[in-house]
Amino acid sequence: MLNRVPLTEALLSTVGSPEHAELLDSSPRSRVWRVRLADRRLVIVKQITDAGDAGADADTRFAREVAGLRLAGRASGPAVAPAVLATDVPSRVMVLEHVDDLGRRDDWMPGYAESLARLHALTGPADAGALPVWSGPTATDAESFLALARALDVAVPSTVPHELAGLLERLDPAPHHALLHGDPCPGNDLRTADGVRFVDFERASLGNGLIELAYFRIGFPTCWCAMSVTAAPLTEVEDVYRTTWRGLTGKDVPGDLADACAGWLIQGDALVERAHRGTVDQLARVPAEDFEWGYVSARERLVHRLGVVADMTRDHDHLHAVGRLSSALASRLLERWPRLRPLPAPDARPWY
Question: Which distant-in-sequence residues (6+ apart) come within 8 Å of 288 by Cβ?
Fold first, then answer.
């Protein structure tokens, strides 16, 4: 296995010689090894691959991950990501600090929320251009959402198109410079004695931190392990996030969480794994087929998101009609497919 670990001479001169290497599970977009060096240290070696569909943007993903990790390395106090020890750009290899993961705990969410806020608060306007800006929903997504309502014979209130146009304007990432992880899913968060550290920054960007705080309400939209967080746990994690952000920045979290959740709702690509995003109109598939990702189906994910937005916008100044439409769509989906299951609670999900 040692001769398969892509450590160049330059990397070897920086980090030392390997004695043992173990290939770890990873996505098709990368190869990851746990390596024990001659001095007994453990490191992680990650290579961004150019195999298959992942190849077209391999160089971009490598640069994006390294940039994100280095920005995350600014954290004072407990780290929020592994340190970058060395990189080799031509081979798209990075050597990272090894992080001991303590594994599952039932109370994982408050620590996750605290580290997420600490990550988001590390960057500001001076970092513009260090990473791409967050890519959110578009006018095409809004039209697909309206087309879904028509396909399901649900009446669209006349003010919904105007409300959706306003939503897209408010979700413009330009005024915001929080360091977004891009895929802060269970499995990309490691629990350590000092707090949660995030890994896999291939989709890191700059934007509004509420986009990722919304994961708790909207069901972890970029993750195979969708789940529903409600009641006291939801209040606690959002309070932890906002308190941590305020303590670090001296300001309240900017923006509207309802907007962030509505943004996730209208994005059909948030119903499928990364390899299938940008290929077809995923919302258009919903009336004809119920496709699965992980152990939850697209319709189940969608019903949850519709219910969240409906509940959050009952008295909303700018999304009231979108909320009424969301409620009607959720009811229609459940009428047609009454066996759709609610998303599982966090303590019921399988763990990595």
Answer: none
Residue type, 25: D
- Amino acid identity, residue 256? D
For the chain, the first-to-last Cα distance in angstroms comes to 24
pLDDT digits 0-9 by tens, 94-153: 999 999 988 777 788 999 999 999 999 999 999 999 999 999 999 999 999 999 999 999
Among 181, 216, 221, 218, smallest CA distance to 197 is for 181
Q: What is the pLDDT of residues 161-207, one digit of tens each?
A: 999 999 999 999 999 999 999 999 988 999 999 999 999 999 999 99
- Report how far residue 189's alpha carbon sits from residue 99's, in angstroms, rounded to the nearest whole number: 11
Tokens (6 digits) for 307: 């219910």
255-309 pLDDT, tens digit each: 999 999 999 999 999 998 887 888 899 999 999 999 998 889 999 999 999 999 9
Determine contact, residues 211/254, Cβ cutoff 8 Å.
no
Contact 313, 260 (CB under 8 A): no
DSSP string computed for 47-61: EE---GGGGGGHHHH
pLDDT tens profile 203-246? 999 999 999 999 999 999 998 889 999 999 999 999 999 999 99
Contacts of 236 (CB under 8 A, 6+ apart): 109, 110
**What DSSP designation does 133 have?**
B
Q: What average pLDDT does this structure show over 64-81?
A: 96
H or E segment to which residue 259 belongs: helix 257-265
- Round to whole Å and give the CA distance between 180 and 119: 7
Distance (Å, whole) CA 352 – CA 338: 30
For residue 57, count CB atoms less than 10 angstroms from its CB and return exposed for 0-12, middle for 13-18, buried for 19 or more: middle
Neighbour order of strands in the sheet with 30-37? 18-24, 30-37, 42-48, 93-97, 84-88
In sequence order, which residues have a C-beta less than 8 Å from that of residue 228 and are 6 or more positions away? 219, 304, 342, 343, 344, 345, 346
